[in-house]
Specification:
globular; alpha/beta; about 300 residues; 10 helices; eight-stranded mixed β-sheet; Rossmann fold
Amino acid sequence: MSSAKPLSNQRIGILGKGGSGKSTVTVLTARALLRQGYSVCVLDADSTNFGLHDALGLKRAPAPLLEYFGGAVFSGGSVSCPVDDPTRLPGAQISLEAIPDRYVDQTPDGIWLLIAGKLGSLGPGAGCDGPIAKIARDLTIRSESENLVTLVDLKAGFEDSARGLITGVDWAVAVVDPTKSAVRIAEDLSNLVYELHEGGMPATEHLESQDLVDLANSIYRESRVRLVLTVLNRVPDEDTEQLLRDVLIDYGIEPVAVIHEDPAISASWFKGGALRTSVAEKDAEPLVAALEAAATARMTRPAAAPAV
């Protein structure tokens, strides 16, 4: 009998506005998943933010997968932007154990880290970060462990979701800090997933062939994402929490977890080194429980309800 857990072999995208604390939520969720008996792989797909390897407890970051897959098309490589070229990334389904050591590392507590790429390292005139987005959309990690979960820390804002990256994750987590723009992105993400469930298709008038149009549409039809779950982050007090809940409920959004503000988190990001927090360390556990409940419901129902 299989001992696979509800989130095994699934991808969870962490999204939100810049400064909302996506990377913090990624680290805390990775550790919470580890405590629940999962093997955890983190894909750093934020092309502009740095320091996730530090926060996870690694002294140096692994080499970017953009290099592994042949480089960006803008620099003469083979990895294209998913908007201009929706074709799947060749060789994107790979075994964790087969990835060369140069491109993967493991933290002291057992979390694996891969980095899709960083735009700043590509030099001036390198084009956009679309090739990094394509890696984030298509990369599927398998492992000898049947309980592997992949967390994808996506670029801040709504751009990568609009590029179609959200079609490649099973679950989306919207991180909301106490700002209006964070609430708006959570609303936009929920609406986007609802539209996907209703058969929404991507913009394709710029594509040069009917084959590419058909491919882009098929990727959206086969979208894996089932639900957007919302997490409140950097919440300083009960009044702020209630205010955020009241605002979100107007959009039909009910947060599943609250990560409280902890000065130790800011200090860890500033000083470097592993992120440690006594206040927020267990705050991600309700998120894992909600994800497991949604995954269990997915296995027992024909389809999940639209994102709310």
